[in-house]
Amino acid sequence: MWLWQLVLAVGFGIGSAVVPVLNAEAYVLGAGVSGKLDPVAAALGVSLGQTIGKLAMFLAVRYRPGYAARTTKEPKPVNLDTRWGRFVHWNRGVSKRLLDAMSDRRWGVPVTLLSASVGIPPLYGVALIGGTSRMGWLAFSLSVLAGRAARFVLLALGVGLF
């Protein structure tokens, strides 16, 4: 009986990994509150589905056409006197620091684990930036799976207390 729940949760997890409007936390909470689904099975399925979806995003960025032959170009200059210019400048700095951290062997897995379990920085962005980094796909997927499983199982167990 729990097998179809797991398959359904994996499918929803894949969808919610790629489409940000689909909320995986709401799915796990709904499974626990309704009493119709096992919340732990739903949490594990959503974790696996989210890992598959984020890995697909990671690999899509890494192996996109023309990526190997790409040459770096200078970013367009921004006007730091405007609010938008300051935001673009700040965003470039954050993206560069995150890319450097993801490429570093010491920081790639902890950043991904933190993102997958807590949500800071957002896992959607980490998956995209991770694809451009030197981080391996196995380390990325295992850290996403561990972080997401911890997040969703703790959420499911908390719902099960009520």
Brief overview:
With 162 residues, this protein is mainly α.
Strand-and-helix sequence, N→C? HHHHHHH
Number of strands: 0
Principal-axis shape equals elongated
**What level of helicity do the residues show?**
over 70%
Mean pLDDT: 88
- Major β-sheet, in short? none
Structural class of the secondary structure composition? mainly alpha
Strand content: under 5%
Number of helices in the DSSP assignment: 7
Low confidence ranges: none
- End-to-end CA span: 23 Å
Radius of gyration: 18 Å
What can you tell me about this protein's structure?
72% of the residues lie in helices and 0% in strands. It is mostly helical and 162 residues long. Helix 1 packs parallel to helix 3, helix 3 runs antiparallel to helix 7 and helix 5 packs parallel to helix 7. The radius of gyration is 18 Å and the shape is elongated. The relative contact order is 0.16.
Brief descriptors of the model:
single chain, about 160 residues, mainly alpha, 7 helices, about 70% helix, elongated
